[in-house]
Every structure is written in structure tokens, then in C-alpha cells.
Amino acid sequence: MAHDEIDIARAKENENSVGFLPEEREWIDELILNNFVDTFREIYPNKVKYSWWDMKTRARDRNVGWRLDYFFVNREKFSKVTESKIWDRVSGSDHAPIGLEIEV
Prior knowledge:
It is built from 3 helices and 6 strands; from the N terminus they run αβαβαββββ. By secondary structure, it is α+β, with helices and mostly antiparallel strands.
């Protein structure tokens, strides 16, 4: 599901769509309140990047997407995260690969 309006290309048009319903978004709010961090959004608070596009409408061609793929880590461990990535230019699927770099 997309958490915030920044995570979906057309937030107003999708506010009643599965994947962006208020109760779904509240679930992610609860996760964050329980000491988990959305690594991508923590590192890039204002960056607009999507990880999923509807193939039927060729949404990827227009970059009308949703950020549906996440790495959450416990707040205590977040200091070990050095990068959180979305490879949105990698094609072959309706989802882009995501990556997480962690200091060991």
C-alpha cells in the first residue's frame, strides 16, 4: 500500500482505492508509532519515486505510479542503514527492485 500522498501519483483520485485506503495507511502509521522506520522516506523525505506501475494502462511510460515496496527497520537499527534505493529505471516487471544498504 502507499502510505502518504507523496507515495502515489494521483492521491486524490485514489483515496478510496485498495492500497491507499485510510485504514491501510493507518496500519503503516501504527507500524511507525511502534518504533519502525520507512527507510526510503526517512532518508529522502521529499523525493518522489515509485516502485509500482499499472501495466494495463502503461502507467510506467507516464510515471503514474505508487510506492508500494518498503524496507522497514527498527528505529534502534536505523543508524546502520546507509542507503535505501528504488531502481525505477529497471524494467521487466510492474514493480521496480528496491535495495537497502546496511553497515555491518
